[in-house]
Amino acid sequence: MKNITVSLDDETYRRARIAAAERDTSVSALVKRFLQDLAVGESEFERLKRLEQETRKRITNFSASDRLSRDEIHNRRY
Question: Is 0.85 surpassed by the pTM of this model?
Answer without folding.
Answer: no
